[in-house]
Amino acid sequence: MSPADRLRRLRRLRRPAIRRRVRAAVAEELLGTPRSLAVVCAFTAFMFAVGLGYYAPTADEVPVALWPLYADSAVAVALGGGVLASVVATVRRGGDVTADAPTSRGLAYLHTLAFVWLVQFGLWPLVSLNLAFGEYVAAPDAWIYYWGVIGTHLLFVGLALLFPAFGRTTRGALATALGLGVVNAVVDYWVGYHPPLLYEPGLGLAAATLAIAVGAVALASRSFRRLGEGSD
Known about the structure:
The chain has helices at about 5-10, 15-30, 35-55, 65-70, 70-85, 90, 95-100, 105-130, 135, 140-160, 170-190, 205-225, and strands at about 170, 225. It is an all-alpha fold.
C-alpha cells in the first residue's frame, strides 16, 4: 500500500460513521465474548487495586466525604468497571455488545461519567508529572512513578473510548460530568486535597486540569449518541 493510499484511509476516519464502525469493531473484539470481556474486567480490577494502594496511605488526611474526589483515578476505574459489568449479561447470552447492550437514563449517566473521568485522569498525569519531569525521572522508582503511571493511565483512555460503541449520553449527564470536573478541581487546588505529588501544584496545573475536564466532556458529547437515538 502506497503512502497516498494510507493517507486516504486515515482521512476516512474523519467521517463519524466510519469512526463508529471502527470503534464498534474494536469493542466487539475486546468485549464481545465472555473470555475477552473477562480479561478486560480482570485488568480493570487490577488497575483499581493499584489505584487504591496509591491513595490509601494518605486517605486518612482527607475527609471521608471527599474520598471519591481525592482518589479520582481509582474512582474513574471503578466507574469503568461498572460500565463493563452492565454488559456482562448481554455478552453471556451471546448478544452483540454494540447492538444489544442495555440502555437507560441511569446507564447514560454512568457511561458519560465513566468516559469523562477515565479520559480526564488518563491524560492528567501527562501534565502533572511533566511539570516536574526532572524530579520524577530522577526518582529511585522512576520506572513506576513516571513511566508506569503514564502508561497505565493512558490505558484509561483506551478503555473509555470503547464505551461510545454501545453507550449513550444525555445533556444532563454531560452537564453533571462537567460540574463534577469543576468541583474536583476546586477540591484539589483550592481546598488542597490534590493527589500525592513530588511538588506543590500551582495555578498552571489547576488550569490544565480544568481544560482537560472541559475537553473530556466535549469529546463525550461528540462520541456518544444521545439516549433514544438508533444505531447506524
